[in-house]
C-alpha cells in the first residue's frame, strides 16, 4: 500500500515484545523512506531508542517525538499533527507515515484517548497519511485493547486485516461520551445567563474564584468560561446557567441549558473550516482545558470544563 493518493490509513498494531515491535515498524518506516514520505514517530522514550538503533543511518530521516509530551490534550495533539503534515507538504512530501503510540495513562484517561483515536478517522479522513498506532499487549488493559478494534479500520497482530469491530466515529463518540470532570460540594457560583450583557459579571465572578492563579492561566480560564457561556446563549434553549467550583488549584466551570446539545459529536476536535461561523468556541475550549465534557441529557445539556493552574505555582 502507498499513501501517495489522498486518504487516511489508520491501523492498530498489537505487539508483545520488542522484536515484534521492531519487526513491524522497521519495514513500515523504510518503505516510507523509499517512497519519499515524511516519517514521524511519537512513541515511548525506550521505543525511540529501539527504532533509532534499528534504523541506523536512516534514523535522521524520522522525526521522533516523546509521546508523553505529545499526547496531553486530544485537540492539541490533532492540531500538532496538522502542523506536521503542513510542514511535510511544504518540504515536498506527498504522503506521511506516522507511528503514534498514544499515552493512555491512568484509567481516567482511557475514554478521552479512545475518543481521540476514533476522531482521528474523521478529522484526517482526506489526509495523505498512513498512521500505525502500537498497542503493547503486555501493559495495556483489556478494555483499551478491545476499544482499539473499534477505533481502527485496520488491525495488525501481526497479520494485517480489516477490523471486524470498527465503528464509525460519529456513532462511537455518541456511545462513549466524556465523563464529566468531578466536583465536590455546592458550586461557589451559580447564576443564570440571560444574554451577553451577563458576560462581564461572569468573568468577574470567575476571576474572584480563581484568585491567586498566574496571569496567563487566568486569562485562558476567563476565555474558556466566556466561550462556554456564549455557546450556551447562542445555541442553547430555555434556562441557561453557569456554575463554578474550585478545589485546590483546579477550577471547574459548567454552562447548562435546556437544549439537545451539539448535533456533531466531533465538534471542537478539529479547527473549524476557514470562513465557518460555528465550532470555533469549542475548538478553543478543547485546546486550553485539561478536561472537557459535553453531557447531552434528555432535557438538559451541560458543558463542563476543568483547568488546573500550572504545577509548582503557589496560588491563594
From TrEMBL:
<protein>
    <submittedName>
        <fullName>Anti-sigma regulatory factor (Ser/Thr protein kinase)</fullName>
    </submittedName>
</protein>
<feature type="domain" description="Histidine kinase/HSP90-like ATPase">
    <location>
        <begin position="196"/>
        <end position="305"/>
    </location>
</feature>
<dbReference type="InterPro" id="IPR003594">
    <property type="entry name" value="HATPase_dom"/>
</dbReference>
<dbReference type="InterPro" id="IPR036890">
    <property type="entry name" value="HATPase_C_sf"/>
</dbReference>
<dbReference type="Pfam" id="PF13581">
    <property type="entry name" value="HATPase_c_2"/>
</dbReference>
<dbReference type="InterPro" id="IPR050267">
    <property type="entry name" value="Anti-sigma-factor_SerPK"/>
</dbReference>
<dbReference type="InterPro" id="IPR025847">
    <property type="entry name" value="MEDS_domain"/>
</dbReference>
<keyword id="KW-0723">Serine/threonine-protein kinase</keyword>
<keyword id="KW-0418">Kinase</keyword>
<keyword id="KW-0808">Transferase</keyword>
<feature type="domain" description="MEDS">
    <location>
        <begin position="10"/>
        <end position="153"/>
    </location>
</feature>
<dbReference type="GO" id="GO:0004674">
    <property type="term" value="F:protein serine/threonine kinase activity"/>
</dbReference>
<dbReference type="Pfam" id="PF14417">
    <property type="entry name" value="MEDS"/>
</dbReference>
<dbReference type="InterPro" id="IPR047718">
    <property type="entry name" value="RsbA-like_anti_sig"/>
</dbReference>
Amino acid at each position: 500500500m502507498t499513501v501517495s493518493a489522498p486518504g487516511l490509513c489508520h491501523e492498530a498494531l498489537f505487539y508483545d515484545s520488542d522484536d515484534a515491535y521492531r519487526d513491524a515498524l522497521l519495514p513500515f518506516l523504510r518503505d516510507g523512506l523509499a517512497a519519499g514520505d515524511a516519517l514521524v514517530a511519537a512513541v515511548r522514550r525506550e521505543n525511540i531508542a529501539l527504532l533509532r538503533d534499528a534504523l541506523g543511518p536512516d534514523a535522521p530521516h524520522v522525526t521522533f517525538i516523546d509521546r508523553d509530551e505529545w499526547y496531553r490534550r486530544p485537540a492539541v495533539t490533532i492540531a500538532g499533527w496538522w502542523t506536521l503534515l503542513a510542514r511535510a507538504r511544504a518540504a515536498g512530501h506527498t504522503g506521511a507515515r506516522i507511528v503514534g503510540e498514544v499515552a493512555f495513562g491512568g484509567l481516567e484517561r482511557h475514554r478521552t484517548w479512545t475518543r481521540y483515536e476514533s476522531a482521528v478517522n474523521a478529522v484526517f479522513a482526506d489526509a495523505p497519511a498512513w498512521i500505525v498506532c502500537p498497542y503493547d499487549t503486555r501493559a495495556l488493559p483489556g478494555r483499551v485493547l478491545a476499544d482499539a478494534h473499534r477505533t481502527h479500520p485496520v488491525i495488525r497482530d501481526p497479520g494485517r486485516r480489516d477490523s471486524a469491530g470498527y465503528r464509525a466515529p460519529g456513532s462511537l463518540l455518541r456511545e462513549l461520551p466524556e465523563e464529566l470532570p468531578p466536583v465536590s460540594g455546592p458550586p461557589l457560583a451559580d447564576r443564570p445567563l440571560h444574554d451577553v450583557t451577563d458576560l462581564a459579571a461572569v468573568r468577574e465572578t470567575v476571576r474572584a474564584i480563581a484568585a491567586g492563579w498566574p496571569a496567563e492561566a487566568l486569562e485562558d480560564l476567563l476565555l474558556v468560561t466566556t466561550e462556554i457561556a456564549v455557546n450556551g446563549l447562542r445555541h442553547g434553549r430555555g434556562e441557561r446557567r453557569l456554575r463554578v467550583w474550585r478545589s485546590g488549584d483546579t477550577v471547574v466551570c459548567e454552562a447548562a441549558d435546556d437544549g439537545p446539545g451539539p448535533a456533531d459529536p466531533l465538534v471542537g476536535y478539529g479547527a473549524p473550516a476557514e470562513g465557518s461561523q460555528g465550532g470555533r468556541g469549542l475548538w478553543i475550549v478543547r485546546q486550553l482545558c485539561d478536561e472537557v465534557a459535553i453531557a447531552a441529557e434528555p432535557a438538559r445539556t451541560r458543558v463542563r470544563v476543568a483547568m488546573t493552574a500550572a504545577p509548582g505555582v503557589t496560588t491563594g
